[in-house]
Every structure is written in structure tokens, then in C-alpha cells.
Amino acid sequence: MTNNPEQALLFLLMFFLALAGLLVLMVHLECSLTKTAPRPRGLGGRSGRDEAAAPLTVRAGGRVNPGCWVARRPVGYSGHLIPIWEPNMSTDAIVLLKQDHKEILSTFKKFEKAGDNAHKAKADLVNKMIKLLTVHTYIENEVMYTRVRDLLPEVEDDVLESYEEHHAADVLVMELVGMKPTDERFTAKTTVLIENVTHHIEEEQEWFPKVREGLGRSVLQEIGAEMVEAKKNAPRSPAQPSALKKTVDAVIK
Ligand SMILES: [Fe+2]
Ligand SMILES: [Fe+2]
After folding, report:
1. Distance 164 CA to ligand 1 centre (A)
2. pLDDT-derived band at 14, boundaries 50, 70, 90
3. CA-to-CA distance for 64 and 38, rounded, in angstroms?
4. Looking at residue 172, what is its pLDDT?
5. How many C-beta atoms lie closer than 10 Å to residue 55's C-beta?
């Protein structure tokens, strides 16, 4: 060190500038490489096993660590044309699920309007339904329902009934995977799937407001961010192992 006060001051100034630069670099790296937000209080799993799971991670535009709001590129659509999330979209869990519902119901309407002999169009629409429903029921079972059940015991019955309705839809979806549009029961089975899922969506619309009131905006945003992440790797077909696991979990949990 030096005995010159001016040199000592300069040294200290340079030291603090270097420290500030290092901090800025660390924050930048954290925001650009991986965005990890702490799991909100009370968002652990029922048995406590989820507390040990990976922390809530949001990439590509999610609201993450303080100061890490990034909108680098739209997540847009996955390779299977399943809408994921876009930077200007909310991560509110209920808003996200309602957007899914809208797309599912729109696909149902198109199927109902297709003519009896529109085999190709009907096959394509059923394939789309299978993907949309497989992804949607996966993120609800694995994220939304699990979290809501933990945090809001008063909607336990609604959640349990929803698991059963998903299970009934899963069975129809699995059977439809192996069918051709010219099969005798193809349209009948699809119609029953449409009726069941439409009824289920109507019921969700009835109990979701209780969830909004009970959990509030910030917790719903945290759950939504977790759903966005889960959606990226969600199964697209009921034959995928993660889809089968979801189906089994819904029965035995
Ligand atoms: Fe559902
Ligand atoms: Fe739903």
C-alpha cells in the first residue's frame, strides 16, 4: 500500500469499480444462461418430495430473478405445433390454461363441422386433439392440480374429480390413437371425447375462480411459469412414457 492519501483513494476507487464490474458480469451470466427463481413458499409437494426437486426454472422470457426480465425470442410453437408461450403472454396459470381450452374447443368445433366423408380433415383434427389434450392434461396433472391441491384444500374434491375426468379422456385418446377415420366407431368415439372434455372444461371454469381467489396473482404466475417450462418437454402422444406415468399417477395418487 501507499502512504500517499491520493494514491490510496485512487486505489480504493479502482477496487470498487472492479467489484461493481464483476457483479454486473455475474448478474448478466445468471440471467442469460439459466434463470432460476426460488420456489415460492408453500409450493412444495404434498409429501415434501417436491421441495427437493429442481427449483423453478424459467427460460426464454419468463419473469425470473429480480432484474432478469428478458424477452430474447418467442418460444412460439414446439416442433409439434403445440403453442407454448410467447414473451408478451401472461404466465398466470389460469390465463394459460384458458388459452389452451380455447384452442381445444376450437378444434372440437372444426371436427363437428367437418363432413361425414372428410376423412383426411377429421384424421388431422383428431391428431391435433390428441396432442393438445395430452399436453394439457399433463401440465394440469403434474403442475396445476398438484400445486392447487397442496395449497388450497377446499378445492380438493374438484381436483380429484378432475383427475378422474382426465383419466376417462386418456382412455378415449389412447383408443383413438389406433383408429382410422374410416373405422365404424371413429366419429362416435371422438364425439364422446368432445362431450366429456367440453363438460370437464366447463367444470374447470367453475372452480378456477376459487383458485384465483385463494392463491392470488403472484402464486398463479409462479405456477404458470412452471407450467410453461413443463410444457416444453410434455409428452405429445399418450404412448410416451411420461404420458403413461401421468395416467398411472392420476389413478394412484
Ligand atoms: Fe383439466
Ligand atoms: Fe383444463
Report:
1. 10
2. low
3. 9
4. 97
5. 10
CB 173 within 8 A of CB 130: yes
Residue 9 lies in a domain: no
Cell of residue 244, nine digits: 403413461
Using the mean position of ligand 1's atoms as its centre, give its distance from the Cα of residue 159 in Å.
Answer: 9
Q: Count of domains in the chain? A: 1
Comparing 93 with 56, which gets the higher pLDDT? Answer: 93
Q: What gap in Å lies between CA 122 and CA 239, rounded to an integer?
A: 21
CA of 145 to the centre of ligand 2 (A): 10
Question: For residue 94, how far is its CA from the centre of ligand 2 (angstroms)?
Answer: 9
Q: What is the distance, to the nearest Å, from the Cα of residue 109 to the centroid of all Cα atoms in its chain?
A: 24
Using the mean position of ligand 1's atoms as its centre, give its distance from the Cα of residue 141 in Å. 8
The domain that contains 114 carries what CATH number?
1.20.120
Angle at 205 between CA 87 and CA 238, to 5 degrees: 70
Residue 233 lies in a domain: yes
Neighbours of ion ligand 2 (CB under 5 A): 97, 204
Question: Is 244 contained in some domain?
Answer: yes
99 within a domain of the structure (yes/no): yes
pLDDT at 60: 36
Domain, as residue range, for 213: 76-252
